[in-house]
Design a protein that fits this description.
Layout (H helix, E strand, L loop, with lengths): L5 H4 L30 E6 L2 E6 L2 E7 L7 E6 L5 E5 L7 H6 L3 E7 L9 E9 L5 E4 L2 E6 L2 E6 L9 E7 L10 E6 L5 E5 L5 E4 L5 E4 L2 E7 L2 E10 L3 E7 L5 E6 L10 E5 L5 E2 L20 E4 L3 E7 L17 E3 L2 E3 L3 E6 L4 E10 L2 E12 L6 E6 L5 E5 L21 E7 L20 H7 L5 H13 L5 H9 L4 H12 L4 H8 L7 H14 L5 H7 L5 H14 L4 H11 L9 H20 L4 H11 L5 H14 L4 H11 L3 H11 L6 H4 L3 H6 L6 H8 L4 H17 L2 H13 L7 H13 L2 H10 L5 H7 L1 H10 L5 H8 L11 H11 L4 H13 L4 H9 L9 H8 L5 H13 L8 H8 L4 H6 L7 H18 L5 H9 L5 H4 L1 E2 L2 E2 L9 H4 L2 H9 L11 E6 L4 E9 L3 E7 L2 E6 L3 E6 L9 H4 L2 H13 L2
Parallel strand pairs: 17-21
Antiparallel strand pairs: 1-2, 2-28, 3-31, 4-5, 5-6, 6-7, 8-9, 9-10, 10-11, 12-13, 13-16, 14-15, 16-17, 18-19, 19-20, 20-22, 23-26, 24-25, 26-27, 27-28, 29-30, 30-31, 32-33, 34-35, 34-38, 35-36, 36-37
Helix pairs in contact: 3-4, 4-6, 5-6, 5-7, 6-8, 8-10, 10-12, 11-12, 11-14, 12-13, 12-14, 13-14, 14-16, 15-16, 20-21, 20-22, 21-22, 22-23, 22-24, 23-26, 25-26, 27-28, 28-30, 29-31, 35-40, 38-40
Length: about 1100
């Protein structure tokens, strides 16, 4: 969610409002007064406490009375503030779309004191708004699935025209399909696609392309072709901001798979790059190597609003942090740019210093503003003309896909704060309202490009651009003249918005500049406009430019160059040292990417493909291996075959580790090459001792029939060899092969191993088979083999249990001894032992007496495992079993642990008579939630003081199983969210609620789903991976299932977490207090 950052990218070409606002309509900057000492200080604002960086002060600019639940905001040229204001609704998104209740407000500061006095509704009945941009007299609002253009034609402060400017045509459950829009330095409108819904777009040549990945898109305000700027596997890219040179940055969640405290952050969005997290949705998108590097990690911060800020000379030195030092560039004094990021979960505004580093940036992040209240949720930040920042706090209303308490607190409203630098010498008329913009001639406007007032500079850029070709000559003079660097860059951006050859020619004159920032802006503009006349100049000069400029030039050459440019790009690849990062860090990877992606773009153009492919094939033989590898990466993306395949297999068998690694990555992704790869499998497996990489790359391609056949044959050979070392190695290989790849050939090999293995290895193998498809178990003979082992009383109990837990459903009846062993494990506190017992009982053909015994054992089963027990009982739905089950559930007051809908689903197979007896368990939802709220408040009141060390021990104990699902530091599972820094973003109440009532809320990307298959199967779990062909559900910490999409009849979200309920009954109050204390301390 986020508005457009006005200082960084707003156009001022709109008409003046009907309101007569004083020319000094801007916040009054506080005087020096009591400048605090230290790095940060505490301040009270409107009854709340905030810790704020020294050199800054804070006050309330918009009260909750004017905007109760602000989400995003955008300023117009007069200083009026347009605010997306929530109604507080958290209804399902389809319901919100059908009955929109949100609104857009227009706020007016009558006396220009920086505090807004009046509010009026600019547009009502809006779908959930997730971005606002004032541009050229209209307000653009992202309200998924559309971006609306709202225009006030008669000046009464209300939108008269509502036009759909863009329609994404997808709306998913969290409404993160769309964020924005944002105005780029180049005059294009940018926005973000999130979620993983499939969308289709048209290219300039009329062809279409389809994607489920995340993207930043852009197009002209007037419409036209939509271009993708970047591609990602992250769930939720939110806000985009632009540096003065045109570089793009964006905030996002889940840019990596959570772990070690990492999750969200800020990315430097280089054109054509593919970022994480690694996910099936990015398959099929062109890659230039590994996923692109993350610029700034912020943990589970949920960053939203983002603004890029150029410190002005009239702002006090040092107020933007340790990196805010004046530097000399071509005789001018400049200060590094910074980013401001609003972080919803951290209750902070973060200050991120941008330090140029090669072709990218190094950053350091520190808190700028921190709210003491955990109900302070900043969602947007908007720079104002006086150097202050408008910080939007949405309040406590937002719950949609938000993993905080689901018990509503409508009284927690938001507000908008003004964060101002102390002692700033703000120029007079900071918005330029006394300037007669309509009458200003080109020379006057050109002079304003070097004005000390940032809003005046931006409006001059837009006004000159709006006059079209008549402005080109004066802008050309500025670009090639002696004005300041910032004026010359501004002239480039104004020219970038003017169509025509004359503007192209004027931009090309910027390539004569010596200042890297001017060159960088010019290269971006040339790339955007696809000016072919710039090719010769770029080729001749870009090799001598600094890395950041070379990267921008490569982007341009990829969009405009011909096949002959490929060798020049390859020459620059050869200069990278070392290949693919190393000493140049992220900047080196960024430059490498742009060079390779430029080759790819050239080679995909229909007019260049034949010549480009031939040149790339020649480069495969280059003695400089970095050039050869770059060519191989591009040819792989192009789908090259035949001679390319021969070269890749030669590399694979060669002794150059970099070429071999590159070939391996390419070969395993090519299904048509599997037959050529298969003969190499056995040899690779034989030499796999100590080399984990070989089994991994073989496992990656194990789904290919030819590879599976080779693996299976090798497993059978290892089993028949009776060589214990080879058998042990073969079992390791089985462990590396994904369950989804175990079809008949590999299963037959496993069957041979199972027969040859000793007790210990047989037990491990049997466990490994629990997630194999039932048809494969049957057809390979593994299923009957496992059943025979399970029913063989001469086998050890451990082996029998392991085999029974993996055998096909209804494999046979358990004898008394094995039944007692399974039942004793079911009631064990140890999670793994209990899960083993449940699985054995679920798969066996229990008689009625055994099923009743299982039902009676509910008294001894830990509450957190009641639901799995009910699931297995539902497989024996006799009336007698149903009566015992309901009797025990009522006696145990199970409705305080399991949701009524959950209980009803589990008892439905027993029939209507049993459901009638179970009626007391199905309390109304409202009553249940009220009871939960009351229970939570009671626990909070009665919870004793907690001990962090004891809490850490409880977190790791088998009876809770926390560490099995959740990562803490670098240890733990990945079925649930990473908890390494959970204490930073969750209050004590929310932590306790998530332990006691896990169904109350779900962390985004960890929502539970139910999949019903065409053959009647039903699977529940968390989606851990998906692509066009399949979806993988994690059903528990140790079990997952991969389902072909063609086999799925229905896939739907559910409200039952795979995290078990009932910990408040299993753990003592002291245990709960200790566990909460440990989580609070995890920062």
């Amino acid at each position: 969610m986020r508005s457009h950052s006005f200082l960084t990218a707003m156009s001022f070409a709109g008409l003046l409002s009907f309101l007569a606002i004083p020319s000094n309509a801007v916040a009054q900057t506080p005087t020096d007064g009591d400048v605090p000492h230290g790095t940060r200080h505490w301040t009270d604002v409107a009854g709340r406490r905030f810790e704020i960086a020294d050199g800054w002060t804070m006050r309330l600019a918009v009260s909750p009375e004017l905007a109760p639940r602000p989400i995003t905001a955008s300023l117009d040229e007069l200083g009026n503030l347009y605010v997306a204001d929530s109604s507080g609704s958290n209804a399902p998104v389809e319901q919100q779309l059908a009955d929109p209740t949100h609104r857009i407000l227009k706020l007016i500061d009558d006396d220009a004191d920086g505090v807004y006095d009046r509010s009026q509704t600019f547009a009502d009945r809006m779908m959930f708004p997730e971005g606002t941009l004032w541009h050229d007299g209209s307000l653009y609002v992202a309200a998924p699935p559309q971006i609306w253009k709202l225009t006030d034609d008669d000046g009464d402060g209300m939108a008269d025209r509502r036009e759909v400017w863009f329609d994404g045509r997808t709306l998913t459950g969290c409404a993160n399909d769309l964020h924005g829009p944002y105005l780029g330095r180049d005059g294009r409108i940018y926005w973000c696609k999130g979620a993983f819904a499939e969308q289709t777009y048209e290219r300039e040549d009329g062809s279409t392309w389809t994607t489920r990945a995340s993207h930043i898109f852009r197009r002209r305000a007037t419409g036209g072709t939509i271009e993708s700027v970047m591609t990602g596997g992250m769930d939720n890219p939110v806000d985009v901001a632009f540096a003065s040179t045109g570089e793009r940055f964006f905030t996002t969640t889940f840019l990596v798979h959570p772990g070690g405290g990492l999750r969200d952050g800020v990315i430097h969005a280089v054109y054509g790059g593919v970022w994480g997290k690694e996910h099936g949705v990015i398959d099929g998108h062109p890659r230039t190597g590994e996923l692109m590097p993350v610029m700034t990690h912020l943990g589970a911060a949920a960053p939203s609003g983002l603004a890029a800020i150029e410190p002005e000379t009239w702002m006090p030195a040092g107020v933007f942090g340790p990196s805010d030092r004046s530097e000399s560039s071509s005789g001018e004094t400049v200060r590094p740019e910074v980013l401001a990021a609003a972080c919803f979960n951290l209750h902070q505004l973060m200050r991120i210093a941008l330090v140029p580093d090669g072709a990218s940036y190094r950053t350091s992040a520190e808190p700028w503003v921190t709210g003491e209240s955990l109900d302070f949720h900043p969602t947007d930040v908007v720079p104002d003309a006086d150097g202050s920042l408008l910080l939007v706090d949405t309040g406590g209303w937002y719950k949609l896909c938000c993993p905080t308490s689901q018990f509503e607190r409508p009284e927690v409203l938001g507000g908008i704060y003004r964060v101002s630098p102390i002692g700033a010498e703000v120029p007079d008329d900071p918005r330029g309202l006394r300037i007669d913009w309509g009458a200003a001639d080109p020379n006057r406007l050109a002079g304003l490009l070097d004005d000390d007032r940032p809003f005046v500079r931006e409006r001059a850029i837009a006004t000159l651009a709006s006059r079209g070709e008549s402005s080109v000559e004066i802008l050309r003079q500025v670009v090639g003249g002696s004005m300041s660097t910032r004026a010359r860059i501004a002239a480039v951006w104004s020219l970038a918005r003017i169509d025509g050859a004359a503007a192209d020619a004027a931009i090309r004159t910027a390539l004569d500049a010596s200042e890297p920032s001017i060159l960088q802006a010019a290269c971006h503009a040339i790339a955007l406009r696809r000016d072919p006349s710039a090719v010769e100049l770029l080729v001749a000069r870009f090799g001598d430019w600094p890395p950041a400029v070379r990267r921008a030039a490569a982007e341009a050459l990829g969009r405009i160059g011909g096949a002959a440019v490929i060798e020049r790009l390859a020459e620059q690849v050869a200069r990278l040292e070392p290949f693919a990062s190393g000493d140049e860090g992220a900047g080196g990877r960024m430059l490498e990417h742009s060079l390779i992606f430029a080759m790819f773009e050239i080679a995909t153009r229909s007019t260049e493909v034949e010549s480009a492919t031939a040149r790339l094939m020649s480069l495969l033989d280059a003695s400089e291996r970095r050039q050869a590898i770059a060519a191989a990466i591009v040819l792989d993306q192009l789908g090259a075959d035949d001679r390319f395949a021969e070269t890749m297999f030669a590399w694979l068998d060669g002794d150059d580790p970099l070429r071999s690694e590159t070939a391996r990555a390419i070969v395993v992704r090519r299904p048509s090459w599997a037959a050529r790869l298969a003969p190499r499998v056995a040899a690779a497996l034989e030499r796999a001792v100590g080399d984990e990489q070989v089994p991994t790359w073989i496992a990656t391609s194990a789904e290919r029939p030819e590879i599976a056949q080779a693996i299976g044959a090798w497993l059978e050979e290892a089993a028949t060899s009776r060589d214990s070392e080879r058998i042990a190695r073969a079992i390791e290989v089985v462990g590396a092969v994904p369950s989804s790849a175990i079809g008949l050939p590999i299963a037959r090999g496993i069957a041979a191993l199972l027969a040859a293995a000793d007790d210990e290895n047989r037990q491990g193998l049997a466990f490994r088979l629990r997630s194999i498809d039932s048809d494969v178990l049957s057809d390979s003979g593994l299923g009957p083999q496992l059943a025979m082992i399970a029913l063989d009383d001469e086998q050890s109990t451990a082996v029998r249990l392991a085999a029974a837990a993996s055998a096909p459903l209804d494999f046979g009846r358990l004898d008394d001894e094995l039944f007692r062993e399974a039942l004793s494990r079911l009631t064990d506190d140890d999670w793994e032992r209990s899960d083993l017992g449940r699985e054995v009982l679920r798969r066996a053909l229990l008689d009625e007496a055994q099923a009743e015994a299982v039902a009676k054992s509910l008294d001894e089963v830990p509450t957190v495992r009641w639901d799995p027990v009910l699931e297995l009982l539902a497989r024996r739905p006799t009336e007698a079993v149903g009566k015992v089950t309901v009797e025990r559930l009522i006696a145990l007051d199970a409705s305080t642990v399991l949701a009524p809908s959950q209980l009803r689903d589990r008892l439905a197979p027993f029939g209507d008579a049993i459901l009638t007896e179970a009626a007391p368990l199905f309390a109304g939802e409202a009553e249940r939630r009220a009871a939960q709220a009351e229970r939570l408040e009671q626990l909070l009141r009665e919870l004793p003081a907690g001990d962090v060390a004891r809490g850490q021990s409880i977190f790791h104990q088998d009876r809770t199983g926390c560490i099995r699902c959740h990562q803490m530091g670098y240890a733990g599972g990945r079925t649930g969210p990473d908890l390494t820094r959970i204490g930073q973003i969750r209050a004590r109440r929310d932590l306790l609620e998530s332990i006691v009532f896990p169904n109350a809320s779900f962390v985004r990307s960890y929502e539970p789903w139910s999949a019903e298959t065409l053959d009647g199967g039903r699977f529940q779990g968390i989606v851990v991976d998906q692509d066009d062909r399949s979806i993988t559900l994690a059903e528990s910490p140790i079990a997952s299932v991969r389902l072909d999409r063609s086999d799925i009849a229905q896939l739907s979200p559910i409200e039952v977490s795979i995290m078990p309920s009932g910990f408040d009954q299993q753990l003592t109050p002291q245990d709960l207090a200790d566990l909460v204390a440990f989580l609070e301390a995890s920062r």
